[in-house]
Design brief:
Layout (H helix, E strand, L loop, with lengths): L4 H5 L8 E5 L3 H12 L3 E6 L23 H7 L3 E4 L7 H9 L4 E5 L12 H7 L4 E6 L14 H8 L21 H24 L3 E6 H9 L3 H8 L13 E5 L2 E5 L4 H10 L15 H13 L3 H10 L4 E3 L10 H6 L2 E4 L4 E4 L4 E2 L40 E5 L4 H11 L3 E6 L25 H6 L4 E4 L5 H12 L3 E4 L3 H7 L3 H7 L4 E4 L16 H8 L19 H23 L3 E4 L2 H8 L1 H10 L16 E5 L12 E5 L3 H10 L14 H6 L1 H13 L3 H10 L4 E3 L10 H5 L3 E6 L3 E6 L3 E3 L18 H6 L5 H9 L10
Parallel strand pairs: 1-2, 1-4, 2-3, 4-5, 5-6, 13-14, 13-16, 14-15, 16-17, 17-18
Antiparallel strand pairs: 6-24, 7-8, 8-9, 10-11, 12-18, 19-20, 20-21, 22-23
Helix pairs in contact: 2-3, 2-7, 6-8, 7-8, 7-20, 14-20, 19-21, 20-21
Length: 802
């Protein structure tokens, strides 16, 4: 191990924690980068040819022999590299010797070491009981689909992420979320899993196996609780694709995005555009042929700044649509200095996706040359057999002052793993997640029926306090005193106006960890602009990579929220590790925009390193050909000719399997298609052959035929059908709930199975508004008489104030 490691990681929460990286690809690479940022020593085990990402360039730029590409340099900064030949007779023994003195290991199913039986995660759990083991695979280590071929593209199709939010024009194929975001979010869960396992090891004295499924991570990150929605509402979220308006529009000098998630925002848009008469015809947005040209004309006459100035004044969520060439020059990012120069590769990269006040990050470290480090081993780690059965976050008390989706997803994970989470709202301003999802205001107790709220708040308690009042503020401060963690995602001015800065919160509870999740950060010119997933996606480049190449990009309208939530969780875990070691609390600034910029890093890296602009490719991908959606003959469940299969061929082996299986298409044996480069060049011709063949067949037949041959393929699922996927059923990803108002529904859980967790994770459904007022406030010394008075004055309550 590199003797210099201790010097740069000194004082960081994971200093001295050793992680062996047996993975390849973005998920493992990003997860171990986050761990390295936290101070962990990451030992990357590679073959003699190295991780394929060393030679990767998203634009196809040539990488100098013996050098690593800039994207790999970003992912591997601060890591160590040593070489082991997986084909050598003693490969497993060599790795075992390293693992004996490590604390954790990351394993991926596509690694060259994955075929060594002695290094399989279930074997490692037996042979190295001290280790925290995180396995990354498409479907998980067990279940009927374990070991089957998949890519992120086919996993998005299985999850319903391609069609679920209506993304794409009705007369064209639906379109994926671009930019390999599923791999990045899987990487974030990898880092969360390792630190959670470390905390669990302190409780149990032994390691654990965390079996992470990329499909499940994508379900949680690219779809909005569609199974819960369907169960509660008895209908899917959407039944067809439609042009989302106003969406992304071409202004006079660039692209700008606007979105209206509420009736008020839509009506404000109409007034802003001098079409107040549309308020009387709110269905106008469902007639895009009529209204889209008018919106395009209005935006096209104005600059991006002019459109945004008006939209901000009318409180309509908006953002410039960033691309690789302009993202680093946006005024907000320049003011916050979110992009820094990599001192070793001379390119720009985003800074770390969160800031923690209690320690100082190390300066950027270089990525290792292949095999640069020796395998000097540390002391052999030990373990005990104290099977306590305690959940990792048991005893952690969390005050959850979040709303909508980004914040609740973070605290939902904590609740599932044992934390006591108190979801704080007020009757004047309940969680906005209760107000979305299409529940009619005429329905009895409508505020308890939103599937979005139900999905993100299971296992929590609910307390209502109007902290804009003197009584509410005093009670809130007393509640804060009882908590280890406070998480909030208001715009910064809300807590500023309430006098609840971190300094004040720390006076109340000196060792508290306060996580703030503002959309655009705590400073900079955009700090007070309300942020939603789509505006974050616009500003961070996620939108730029999504959509058809011949049209304006499309907002993913999903990933911006849960991605922020999971990065906030990881920042919180690092702060808790620091507190465990020092007793010191911390402020964690985990803005939505910084988290999004972290997973779009490849765009600015590639542009500043090579001058190339990565751009959306519809359903194609940079490292697979053919890759696309092909329509099949059957009607979909809504009676439309809108059934598709997703296919992605990543290597020559898969191509040969496809060609051999489809022997009835002799044209596929064209010599021009033999190489990957040839298949990319002639992608259109291959598409025509595949579409003609799929036209006469149904999707079940196509999937069964090609998947059995080892070709990555999927049926494009409607997202509300996730609970019918036998793999998710086998892994008990969904749990049955019984809610006193919403009734029975199924609830998604975690994207991993972890040693020692109970068979059922969700102990209770989402709470009723104010359900735990009496218990929690009595614990603060509030009398029954005081409770009645507080309720009469509206400081607390159990229904939204009218």
């Amino acid at each position: 191990m590199n003797k210099g490691q201790d010097s740069w990681s000194e004082g960081l929460p994971l200093g001295g924690f050793v992680v062996v990286d047996l993975s390849v690809g973005v998920a493992g690479g990003y997860g171990t980068r986050l761990l390295s940022d936290g101070g962990a020593t990451v030992l990357k085990v590679e073959t003699e040819t190295g991780d394929p990402l060393r030679r990767w360039s998203g634009s196809g730029a040539e990488i100098e022999q013996g050098k690593s590409g800039p994207f790999f340099q970003f992912l591997a900064g601060g890591k160590e590299s040593f070489v082991i030949d997986p084909g050598s007779p003693d490969a497993a023994e060599q790795v075992d010797r390293v693992l004996a003195s490590a604390d954790a290991v990351i394993w991926s199913a596509d690694s060259p070491f994955a075929n060594i039986a002695a290094l399989h995660p279930t074997r490692l759990e037996v042979d190295h009981p001290h280790l925290v083991i995180v396995s990354i695979s498409p479907f998980g280590l067990d279940g009927p689909w374990s070991g089957r071929a998949a890519t992120e593209f086919t996993l998005q199709a299985w999850a319903g992420a391609i069609v679920g939010l209506g993304r794409g024009a009705p007369d064209r194929a639906p379109v994926q979320v671009g930019g390999r975001v599923g791999q990045f979010v899987t990487g974030t869960y990898t880092a969360i899993g390792v630190v959670t396992g470390r905390m669990n090891s302190r409780l149990t004295g032994r390691g654990c196996l965390i079996d992470l499924s990329m499909l499940e991570a994508i379900v949680l990150s690219l779809t909005y609780y569609p199974v819960t929605y369907h169960d509660v509402m008895d209908r899917p979220w959407r039944t067809e694709r439609a042009l989302v308006l106003p969406g992304v529009q071409q202004a006079a000098d660039g692209l700008v995005g606007m979105a209206c998630g509420t009736l008020q925002q839509r009506q404000d848009l109409y007034v802003m555009m001098d079409h107040a008469e549309w308020i009387e015809d709110d269905a106008i947005m469902s007639r895009p042929a009529e209204v889209a040209p008018l919106i395009a004309e209005w935006v096209g006459k104005r600059t991006v700044d002019e459109v945004r100035e008006l939209a901000i004044a009318f409180r309509i969520p908006n953002a410039p649509v960033a691309d690789p060439s302009n993202i680093a020059t946006l005024d907000h990012f320049e003011a916050r200095k979110v992009f820094v120069e990599n001192p070793y590769g001379k390119f720009l990269q985003p800074r770390r996706p969160f800031q923690v006040s209690s320690f100082t990050w190390a300066t950027p470290q270089p990525s290792p040359a292949l095999g640069e480090h020796d395998t000097t081993l540390g002391p052999v780690r030990e373990h005990s057999d104290d099977d306590s059965g305690t959940l990792p976050f048991a005893g952690l008390r969390v005050l959850d002052m979040t709303a909508f989706w980004a914040g609740p997803t973070s605290t939902h994970l904590l609740a599932l793993l044992g934390a006591d989470v108190i979801h704080l709202e007020s009757v004047v301003r309940p969680d906005g997640g209760r107000l979305v999802g299409g529940v009619s205001g005429d329905v009895d107790m409508w505020w308890e029926r939103s599937p979005i709220h139900l999905g993100g708040n299971a296992g929590k308690k609910s307390v209502t306090l109007d902290f804009t009042t003197d009584e509410g503020r005093k009670l809130l401060e007393r509640l804060i005193e009882t908590c280890d963690v406070l998480v909030e995602n208001f715009t910064p001015r809300v807590l500023d106006q309430a006098g609840l800065s971190y300094e004040r919160v720390r006076e109340i509870r000196p060792d508290i960890v306060m996580v703030r999740m503002p959309g655009f950060g705590l400073d900079g010119p955009w700090r007070d602009i309300a942020a939603f997933a789509y505006s974050i996606e616009d500003a961070a480049g996620l939108t730029w990579m999504t959509g058809y190449p011949d049209q304006n990009p499309l907002e993913p309208s999903c990933i911006g929220d849960p991605n922020a939530g999971m990065h906030a969780v990881y920042g919180l875990l690092l702060a808790l590790e620091h507190r465990t070691a020092t007793g010191e609390g911390a402020l964690v600034e985990a803005s939505m925009i910084d988290a999004a910029l972290s997973i779009t890093a490849e765009q600015v890296i590639e542009y500043t390193a090579t001058g190339s602009i990565l751009a959306r490719q519809g359903n194609r991908g940079p490292d697979a050909a053919p890759q696309g959606l092909y329509r099949t003959k059957e009607l979909d469940e809504f009676g439309r000719p809108d059934s598709w299969i997703a296919l992605a061929v990543e290597n020559d082996t898969q191509w040969c399997a496809l060609v051999d299986t489809l022997s009835e298409i002799p044209e596929l044996r064209d010599p021009r298609f033999v190489s990957a480069a040839g298949r990319l060049e002639h992608h259109d011709e291959i598409d025509k052959l595949m579409q003609a063949w799929c036209d006469g067949r149904d999707s079940e037949y196509v999937v069964d035929l090609l998947w059995s041959a080892g070709v990555p393929v999927a049926k494009m699922m409607q997202p509300h059908r996730q609970a019918e996927i036998e793999q998710l059923l086998a892994r008990k990803f969904f749990e049955d709930m019984e809610h006193p108002v919403a009734g029975r529904y199924r609830q998604s859980t975690l994207p991993f199975i972890m040693t020692g967790l109970p068979e059922r994770l969700t102990q209770r459904p989402a709470p009723l508004l104010g359900q735990h007022n009496d218990d929690e406030l009595r614990a603060l010394g509030v009398t029954d008489g005081d409770l009645r008075a507080l309720e009469q004055s509206g400081v607390i309550g159990r229904a939204p104030a009218r």
